[in-house]
Amino acid sequence: MDKQLTLEQVTIAYDGASAVSDVSFALPEGSIGCLLGPSGCGKTSLLRAIAGFEPVSKGAISLRGKTISTPSYAQAPEKRAVGMVFQDFALFPHLNVCDNIGFGLERVDAEERRRRIAEMLELVGLADEIERYPHELSGGQQQRVALARALAPNPKILLLDEPFSNLDSVRRSQLAGEIRALLKRSKVTALLVTHDQDEAFAMADKIVLLNDGRVDQIGTPRDLYQRPATLFAADFIGAGNLIDIDIDAAGNLNAGWGRLTATQWPEQRAGRIKLLLRPDIVVFDGQDGHKLNIVEKIFLGANHLYKLALPDGQTVSCLAPSDIDQAIGDSLPVRFDLDQAVVFNLGAH
């Protein structure tokens, strides 16, 4: 599949200090990527550089094989055929839905403009709201209008800057899935910026995880969740606990917690490791489980999320069915299903 967007060793600096260093990745045509990471990691700087609002200090950015940014050359933003959906939607309050969507279509003839607006209204499911103004719309509807306006000029790539941050958490996840479906139907290449892993998982085919201005890991949502390559990725992606534990040369954990496979522990030597345990790895076992003290408990509807103390004071989380209803201070019998556990040496970064 052709590469729609390519970044090669991109560095962005402000007053001599690098906000982004040596970032490289590519997005195939029709795919949805995500720049994910904590605040201040360089996500928005990269997005603005792709849009043409920030210069690059090193490296190159290309769209469909054409270079659009280098330290010595920057194509003007309006020439890049890049669509942008902003955090606050940036709709024009004095324009109705129809005119907001058609704002970027002044250079096409009237008939084509009407056709394209109608196509976008149908795509985002707002054909019945054509005469309404932004203040008359819900947050989700405003988001759809902003998306339709950005897609109307047929951009080569769509950039979305924290597009769901103004919505509540339930609506965010739902809308992220809906927007992904819309983008896939229209076969648009898109790049999302977010600090929220749930949004990233719901939207993206590929995630570029950033930490302190550098790429920490690139992969599918499943890759990053199941096979984090660094301690930062393990800690940032998904609910889980990193614990220090002793292991023997055969892969047996101390205290009878279980045994790692040869794939998980190829070292064949005894020592102390870090072990990433997701809540679904710590399983309620009323028959033969190790009894751990409950220090926190959260009701999640179908499940309880228990925080349990190991004998040495470290904690792990257990996702148990809601009918397993134990009080804080009680013990919960559990076992470790280690097939999906991730192992790090204590010297890992």
How would you describe this structure to a colleague?
It is a single chain. This protein is of the alpha+beta class. It has a six-stranded mixed beta sheet with strand order 7-8-9-3-10-11, with helices on both faces. Strands 2-1-4-5-6 form a five-stranded antiparallel beta sheet, covered by helices on one side. Strands 14-18-15-16-17 form a five-stranded antiparallel beta sheet, with no helix packed on it. The protein has eight helices and 19 strands. The mean pLDDT is 91. It starts with a strand and ends with a strand. Helix 3 crosses helix 4 and helix 5 runs parallel beside helix 6. The chain folds into two domains: 228 residues, Rossmann fold; 107 residues, OB fold (Dihydrolipoamide Acetyltransferase, E2P).
Average pLDDT figure: 91
* Top CATH class of the largest domain: Alpha Beta
**Beta-strand segment tally:** 19
- Termini separation: 34 Å
Largest sheet: 6 strands, mixed
Q: Which regions are unreliable across 5 or more consecutive residues at pLDDT < 50?
A: none
Shape: globular
**What is the number of domains?**
2
Q: Please give the count of helices.
A: 8
Report strand order across the widest sheet. Answer: 7-8-9-3-10-11
Percent strand equals 25-35%
Q: Structural class per helix/strand content?
A: alpha+beta
Rg from alpha-carbon coordinates = 24 Å
CATH topology of the largest domain: Rossmann fold
CATH architecture of the largest domain: 3-Layer(aba) Sandwich
